[in-house]
Amino acid sequence: MVTNAGSAAALAVQADVHTPFEARNMVKGFMKTMFGHDQYTFKQNLDAALPLIEGAGGRRIFENFNRGQVLQNYQRYSARSVLDVDSIYLDMKARPFSGRVYTKQRIFIGDQQRQSLPMAARFNLVETERSDENPYGLLITDFDYIPYNPPVSREEKEFLQQQEAQRQRKLQEAAAGAGITPPGYASPNPGEATTEMPAAIPSGQ
User: Fold this and answer.
1) Is the peptide bond before 190 cis (omega within 30 degrees of 0)?
2) pLDDT band at residue 99 using 50, 70 and 90 as cut-offs
3) Which of 177, 196, 178, 174 lies closest to 186, judged by CA?
4) Tens digit of pLDDT for each residue in 132-153?
5) Which of 71, 72, 109, 140 lies at 20 to 30 Å from 82 by C-alpha?
């Protein structure tokens, strides 16, 4: 490269690459510190979590804590909350990255667990400068709560299908042992009356 000061070598700088592993760790750390604390770690955990989310989103969560008197309840009841991250789903094929996180928040009064609350959210991830406060170089934006309804993985679907197949086999074996023809199966002797098992009553009726 030629400059006014003479010739110099130019080095190609590789663009900063973010991996799914790094993004998941960032989201997991944010959720566990933003929503898991007690009266002693409340401020410390929020100070660690807030640099990982854009300002408006962080203020909205903090204002919800204030309205719910979270810190005061920690102090009043010697309470604490622990957040368990069940799963994180990311789409990093396009920018901004997007994702969903599914968690359960356990509330303790003293040593007794009082309740477990499912909590889920969707979000975007934008790339930003790395810093001491945010070493990931990613910032959570558009954070919003959603119903807790995590997708079922292929492995889970296959397991559920196997369970259902086993259940159907057991029903058929029990029906055959009792001399009953299960619904959907022809009687082995045409013209012979068949007794069908009653259909299940839909729930809620």
Assistant:
1) no
2) very high
3) 196
4) 999 999 999 999 999 998 887 6
5) 140
User: In this predicted structure, which of 4-8, 46-50, 59-63, 111-115 has the lowest mean pLDDT?
Assistant: 4-8
Coil/strand/helix, residue 55: helix
What count of Cα atoms within 13 Å lies in the side-chain half-sphere of residue 186?
A: 4
Amino acid at position 29, single letter: G
For 203, the token pair is 């729930």
pTM here is 0.69
Calculate ∠ Cα 105-110-114, nearest 5°: 45
Unique residue bearing structure tokens 């959570």: 140
